[in-house]
Amino acid sequence: GENVEQHPSTLSVQEGDSAVIKCTYSDSASNYFPWYKQELGKGPQLIIDIRSNVGEKKDQRIAVTLNKTAKHFSLHITETQPEDSAVYFCAASTGSARQLTFGSGTQLTVLP
Amino acid sequence: EAGVAQSPRYKIIEKRQSVAFWCNPISGHATLYWYQQILGQGPKLLIQFQNNGVVDDSQLPKDRFSAERLKGVDSTLKIQPAKLEDSAVYLCASSPRTGTSETQYFGPGTRLLVL
User: Fold this and answer.
1) Do B42 and A49 touch (CB under 8 A)?
2) Which positions in chain B touch A93 (Cβ < 8 Å)?
């Protein structure tokens, strides 16, 4: 089955700096890659996603890039703010039922 | 639009007891998922429903876990008997349909502590 690895597990940045989180996947058939943000005590919330026919997608301060050849994708957050502090999960979707396999998460802390 | 609803939000039980969780998906969403999220890990799929039928339950520990989705709307997940290692957050998610790469919307989760 699919395996998704995520790095780093923790990331601290100064407010206003950029943050980058990287994921690799194993199944070349995966074609949908969402990123979720999970705040303490809450369920994961989709922040951005990308499909395999696109190399990059941007939504205001958040961008995701996908390299299908290398089987890795990354989340980029620019001009970080304290409210960006949370756990971020990448995921890959594969199989006929389009099930998600999640990475292990990155705890992002934005220092004021 | 109302989100995915789950109850209870918290549950503390002793090992070997039984527990049940309830999920109400977003209106009109055909696909419903139950995930287990152990502290410090990403969610792991337990079971996927399409309407009231099971699409995949390969990762559901069927000796103790059961789930149903009557009438293709609400769903319940039951654990009987519970073990210490079942302590986790149980997340319910829904999406409009399967067969395509559709977004999954998550509920707030039920936090289970087994003592």
Assistant:
1) no
2) 101
Give the CA-trace dihedral at A22, A70, A31, A44, to 10 degrees: -10
From the number of C-beta atoms within 10 Å of its C-beta (0-12, 13-18, 19+), residue B43 rates as buried
Q: What is the per-residue pLDDT for B22?
A: 97
What's the rounded mean pLDDT across residues B17-32?
94
Q: Is residue B107 within 8 Å of residue B5, measured between CB atoms?
A: yes
pLDDT tens track for B55-79: 999 999 999 999 999 888 999 999 9
Predicted confidence (pLDDT) at residue B101 exceeds the cutoff of 70: no
Inter-chain CB pairs, A–B, below 8 Å: 60
Residue in A42, A45, A51 nearest the CB of B101 = A51
> Side chain identity at A100, as an amino acid letter?
L
Which of the two residues, B2 and B83, has the higher pLDDT score?
A: B83
At B113, give phi and psi (nearest 5°).
-120, 125
Asked whether the beta carbons of B8 and B113 are under 8 A apart, the reply is: no
Question: Which of B22, B29, B38, B1 has the alpha carbon at shortest distance from B92?
Answer: B22
Taking CA atoms, A13 is separated from A8, A112, B33, in Å, by 13, 9, 34
The two three-digit tokens of residue A92, written as one number: 């890959």
